[in-house]
Amino acid sequence: MIKVRKIKFEFPDDIPFYFNPLNREASVLANTLSFLAPAFERFFIRGIRAAMPKVSSAAVREEADLFCKQEGQHSKIHIDHQNMLLRKYPSLESARDRVNASYAHLLESEPNAYALAYATNIELAFKPMARYLVENRHHLFGDGDPRISSFILWHFVEEFEHRSAMFNVYQDVVGDYLFRMKTVKRTRQHVSKLGGEVLAAMAACEPLPETTAEGSISRWSRLKLALGLLETSSPFHNPESGGEPKWITDWLRAEESGDDMRIIRL
Q1: How buried is 132 (Cβ within 10 angstroms: 0-12 exposed, 13-18 middle, 19+ buried)?
Q2: What is the pTM assigned to this prediction?
Q3: Which among 120, 202, 219, 97 has a CA at the least distance from the CA of 166?
Q4: What confidence score (pLDDT) does residue 215 get?
């Protein structure tokens, strides 16, 4: 069952703009995600809310409601992080506004089936991404500010937790595999375009960090991520397959027992 957690992450100005000065991949991921996530999470939530009257399964409706509440928490915390980045470089407001406007346009110009397909494509991709980040957490986050490391890993723990929710809504309401496949390329192009614009805006403010040799990730790990992303396009894909990484299981147990998850051990 999805749990809606309200963890009070804090983002004071002493956090570096690039939270891990020794790893470009992790730093770019954290910052770019905080510029994109609030907009696409609002887009997902509105798509689900519009589709809710058409959801036939009570279980899917309950899961979808919890998913929306969890995504709302993600959006709120990413905005808090985003605001810290904007305090450092107010010129980034134009990049944020372009992202928000792009998703608002999608919502107005496309049928709701497209919004559900788009959201499903992204959410399915987050499962292998979560596994990749957890498996490589020492490389990606070990040299970074632990406040951001803990925040980003929390987000992806919950992405893994609700890995089936968006897929289940899509299957219940639309259920058209070929239609979803037709949206995959557009979804990736849209995210890549916006992400590229945000990256360029950030690089204009402060040079991107370099990745040290010690922070490198194996080719096998990157290949597993690529194969995991590819597998989400299979007509036989099951978001629940593959088991839960032990680190995610341990995180969930620690949170459930009352541990402070704002600063976690990698």
Answers
A1: buried
A2: 0.96
A3: 120
A4: 53
- Indicate if the alpha-carbon torsion angle 21, 23, 25, 29 is positive or negative: negative
Per the CB < 8 A criterion, the answer to whether 163 and 126 are in contact is yes
Structure-block tokens of residue 144: 């970074």
Cα distances (angstroms) measured from residue 67 to each of 72, 104, 169, 192, 255: 8, 20, 10, 24, 18
How is residue 122 written in tokens? 């992204």
pLDDT along the chain (266 residues), means of 10: 96 97 95 98 97 97 98 98 98 98 97 98 98 96 96 98 98 98 97 98 95 76 96 96 96 98 95
**Which position has the token pair 């919004």?**
115
CA distance to 149, 154, 206, 227, per residue, from 70 (Å): 19, 11, 32, 27
CB 27 within 8 A of CB 209: yes
Q: What is the amino acid identity at position 242? A: G
Gap between the terminal Cα atoms of the chain: 25
Burial of 104 (0-12, 13-18, 19+ CB in 10 A): middle
Amino acid letter for position 180? R
Specify the DSSP element, H or E, that contains 250: helix 246-256
The DSSP output letter for 52 is G
* 233, amino acid identity: S
Q: Any idea which residue has 């696409």 for tokens? A: 40
Helix or strand run (H / E) with residue 194: helix 177-205
Conformation bin of residue 175: beta by default, left when phi > 0, alpha when psi is -120 to 50: left
User: Any idea how long the chain is?
Assistant: 266
Identify whether the C-beta of residue 255 lies closer than 8 Å to the C-beta of residue 247. no
